[in-house]
Design a protein that fits this description.
single chain; 163 residues; mainly alpha; 0% strand
């Protein structure tokens, strides 16, 4: 049994040597070397931090400038819109006054038109009555002539019979 254990250990050792494995590079020398290079790594990290912070500060500055410009543009546009709105309100007031004037003018024109219609109707009615009176007078004249002629004819007939 001792031979079997010994043989097993030898086979295990040979397999361990034959199987490829990674070589560890971290030794004492590299640890010491790492300790002495740590300040340089810290300086590099600090420099990266400062660069990143400077970039962030520049971005912050650009964003602040952009925000200020946007606020100025918005304020300018608000002033323009307010001026335009005031102008539109004034135009609306002028149009309202003009509309009121036109409505009153329209009312007066309608009244004048109604008055003209009434005058025309009155004139037409007077013309009709005048024509009717003239026709009646002419008819009465002709009838009176007929009656007068008839009477004269009858009188002459009586006179001529009686003589």
């Amino acid at each position: 049994m001792r031979k079997a254990v010994f043989l097993f250990l030898i086979v295990l050792f040979i397999v361990f040597l034959l199987v490829p494995h990674q070589v560890a590079e971290a030794g004492m020398w590299s640890n010491i070397k790492g300790i002495f290079s740590a300040p340089a790594k810290i300086d590099a990290l600090e420099q990266q931090y400062m660069d990143a912070r400077q970039q962030l500060d520049e971005q912050k500055k650009h964003l602040a400038e952009s925000l200020l410009q946007a606020e100025q543009i918005a304020a300018k546009q608000a002033e323009q819109y307010a001026a335009k709105q005031e102008e539109l309100i004034q135009q609306n007031e002028q149009f309202r006054k003009a509309n009121e004037q036109l409505m009153e003018q329209n009312k007066s024109l309608i009244q004048e038109m109604e008055l003209a219609k009434q005058k025309q109707a009155s004139f037409t009615q007077k013309l009709f009555h005048t024509a009717l009176i003239c026709i009646s007078l002419i008819t009465a004249y002709f009838l009176s002539l007929r009656v007068w002629r008839f009477l004269v004819w009858r009188k002459q007939k009586q006179v001529s019979r009686g003589v």
